[in-house]
Amino acid sequence: MPGTLVAMPGVLPEGEPVPRDGSLPATARRAVGARGFGVYVHVPFCASRCGYCDFNTYTASELGGGASRETYADSVLAELALAARVLGDSPPPRVDTVFVGGGTPTLLPADDLARILDGIDRVWGLAADAEVTTEANPESVSPESLKTLRAAGYTRISLGMQSAAPGVLAVLDRRHSAGRATAAALEARDAGFEHVNLDLIYGTPGETADDFAASLAQVVDAGVDHVSAYALIVEDGTRLAARMRRGELPYPSDDVAADRYLAAEAALGEAGFSWYEVSNWARSAAAACRHNLLYWTGADWWGLGPGAHSHVGGVRWWNVKHPSAYAARLAEGASPALAREQLTPDEQHMEDVMLRVRLASGLPLDVLDEPGRAGAERARDAGLLDAGAYARGLVVLTLRGRLLADAVVRDLLP
């Protein structure tokens, strides 16, 4: 399928131990930021848990002792101080992007989100044109909080709309009303946000073609400059998965999801959006999410917060998941990292192919080995790759290829 709702994994992968001080090999620090540098901040709090969600998030009743929203910004700033010590005399030239995700970041006071951004600027410095994004639930922002965030330096907001259909929102256990997301988008533009994204989920049990068409129409009418649309996947351990096992709801249909994707491409294309990644559309190149592009093109980033992943110079690591364990490690002066891995050249190549094939800018053919180029030729002949781009030495998916992106990747990595 062209796109799936992705999350921090429910179970963290295994890896090698991380030194108590979080130090990195000299080879990893040698060229930090050469391909761009970003900061991700994970805010693990939610007012309630959505039925489909497998993210590393916690409601108030799930937090337990040792962690709270009130002290969370201080913990993040403590990890930031540790990050500054780890990178030492090899810091990035500037921070190109900051992305605050969750959870629901805007459950924190806007002043705390401002304080975290100021801390990042003080430690490494924000580029003059830095993109600074926060995610938000539509019901967790107000005109006043949006103005505070914009004044603090946030340039972009990503709102979790998911659907305009009340019945679909109910199946997903979303708390906002059907029209609140587009109202929040308009409030964000009024507050001065340069870029506003709305997230959609398609293929929810009970969603009709008309429901999704109405969602797309609301998105377009809201005047946003970016849309993300993901096929629903059912994660083990979620309330939605349990309901499906009991037979209360049918499982998602791949055929329906493909139809929804084609509908999204048609409606958004007609409204002036262009795809730049399989699940993402923007009104202009300037509206594309630069932070995600940084991930997809193999740049460096530091992930702050429980469960957050980082990547610097081919070393990837991930923090302990629970906010209490995260705060406790930092209070002891220790790295919150649970484990890490050094990516091999083969692993880096595999990830490069998997991610860049999904981009409209494409993957250079010369990145592929001989079997991979043979696979690309087969995909072109099958109509899954753009023939004109292929002639220019690029692997670029056609619309049909986007529907079969995973199969194309498998053919390029024999």
Summarize the SSE layout with pairings.
Layout: H1 26-29, E1 37-43, H2 60-63, H3 69-87, E2 95-102, H4 110-123, E3 126-136, H5 143-152, E4 156-162, H6 166-171, H7 180-190, E5 195-202, H8 209-221, E6 226-231, H9 239-245, H10 254-270, E7 274-277, E8 280-282, H11 290-296, E9 300-304, E10 309-312, E11 315-319, H12 323-331, E12 337-342, H13 345-356, E13 363-364, H14 370-381, H15 387-391, E14 394-395, H16 399-403, H17 405-412
Parallel strand pairs: 1-2, 1-9, 2-3, 3-4, 4-5, 5-6
Antiparallel strand pairs: 6-8, 7-8, 10-11, 11-12, 13-14
Helix pairs in contact: 3-4, 3-12, 4-5, 8-10
Q: Can you walk through the features of this model?
A:
The chain has 414 residues and is α/β, with parallel strands linked by helices. It folds into two domains: 26-296, Alpha-Beta Barrel (TIM Barrel); 346-414, no CATH class. It is 39% helix and 19% strand. It is built from 17 helices and 14 strands. The chain has helices spanning 26-29, 60-63, 69-87, 110-123, 143-152, 166-171, 180-190, 209-221, 239-245, 254-270, 290-296, 323-331, 345-356, 370-381, 387-391, 399-403, 405-412, and strands at residues 37-43, 95-102, 126-136, 156-162, 195-202, 226-231, 274-277, 280-282, 300-304, 309-312, 315-319, 337-342, 363-364, 394-395. It has a nine-stranded mixed beta sheet with strand order 7-8-6-5-4-3-2-1-9, with helices on both faces. Helix 5 links the parallel strand 3 (126-136) and strand 4. Mean pLDDT is 94; it is low at 3-9.
